[in-house]
């Protein structure tokens, strides 16, 4: 068995997952541009993402479910499939989880679906896509090649509560189409020259009943918390050290570093391993809540409800409120590293 970080999603009543390392970003549904007839069933058209044309893949079709029109609450997972990026159309995403997956003697996940499907089913019925290119090449999981516990034989028509809540007063479909078209026009605009400096991809995690974010650029991996060895004479915010892939790293307890008031029990069962290619250390977290994009110029440094914004290791608070850590301040502090000598 091996632990895999997976982005969870759903289509109809089917739950699926995709390796987090193959996920580029997640955006809200937009109106796809239809292609000429004659394409594969899963081909839902294309989108223009800041000047790049991406194929839209209907996960409903690949999982053998009935087609449904796009809804306001649907999502597009921008994922890597070989050398190209694709937009995977799903009903919803539901965060990130570490899930144990079986491995065979060749190091590839064991399959429970037909040869070349690129999908396996976990004990709890989760359909894990370990080979997206293989799944697409196979044409998907047809109803005659699955069992009832994997994909329901009769998929009921999706009821989008978001449609009624967000719909206009006159014509629901017209309103939905207008919103999706407006979103499509927005993401089709070229990115501003300095877009990279104004936005950042972040990993979100929870600690002591508050959500935090740290930029993806410095994250090497996320692992389960193993044995922690205390080291005498170190700062209070260092819980100890642990061994990760043969390397000894220090573990940082943000509750102490940020002077977070104790609000009950915490799990601290995840380690977010950070590196700048020179220094490497881990941050303890309760659990990972997802990935996303934040606008750096909208981070507030003053929030009366989040007093830790005055801490030098905190960049500020984004919408949520989401506490954004300052990775530069973390790496510039020499006390983060324990002298192995």
From TrEMBL:
Signal peptide: none annotated. Residues 3-141, 199-341 form the CheW-like domain. GO terms for biological process: chemotaxis; signal transduction. It comes from the Archaea. GO terms for cellular component: cytosol. It holds the Pfam family CheW. This is Chemotaxis signal transduction protein.
């Amino acid at each position: 068995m091996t632990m895999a970080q997976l982005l969870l999603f759903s289509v109809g009543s089917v739950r699926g997952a995709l390796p987090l390392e193959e996920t580029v970003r997640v955006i809200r549904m937009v109106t796809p541009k239809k292609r000429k007839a004659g394409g594969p069933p899963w081909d839902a058209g294309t989108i223009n993402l800041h000047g790049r044309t991406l194929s839209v893949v209907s996960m409903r079709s690949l999982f053998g479910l009935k087609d449904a029109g796009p809804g306001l609450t649907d999502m597009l997972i921008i994922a890597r499939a070989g050398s190209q990026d694709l937009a995977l159309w799903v009903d919803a995403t539901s965060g990130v989880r570490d899930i144990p997956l079986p491995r065979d003697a060749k190091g590839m996940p064991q399959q429970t679906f037909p040869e070349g499907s690129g999908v396996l089913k976990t004990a709890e019925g989760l359909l894990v896509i370990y080979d997206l290119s293989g799944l697409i090449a196979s044409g998907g999981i047809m109803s005659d090649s699955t069992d009832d516990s994997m994909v329901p034989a009769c998929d009921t028509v999706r009821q989008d509560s978001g449609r009624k809540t967000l719909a206009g007063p006159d014509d629901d479909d017209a309103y939905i189409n207008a919103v999706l078209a407006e979103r499509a026009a927005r993401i089709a605009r070229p990115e501003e020259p300095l877009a990279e400096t104004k936005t950042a991809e972040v990993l979100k995690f929870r600690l002591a009943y508050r959500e935090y974010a740290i930029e993806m650029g410095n994250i090497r991996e996320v692992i389960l918390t193993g044995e922690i060895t205390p080291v005498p004479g170190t700062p209070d915010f260092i819980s100890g050290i642990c061994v990760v892939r043969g390397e000894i790293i220090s573990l940082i307890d943000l509750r102490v570093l940020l002077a977070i008031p104790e609000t009950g029990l915490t799990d601290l069962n995840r380690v977010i391993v950070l590196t700048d290619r020179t220094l490497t250390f881990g941050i303890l977290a309760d659990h990972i809540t997802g990935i996303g994009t934040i606008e750096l110029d909208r981070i507030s440094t003053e929030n009366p409800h989040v007093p830790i914004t005055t801490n030098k290791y905190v960049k500020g608070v984004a919408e949520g409120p989401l506490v954004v850590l300052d990775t530069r301040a973390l790496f510039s502090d020499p006390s983060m590293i324990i002298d192995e000598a």
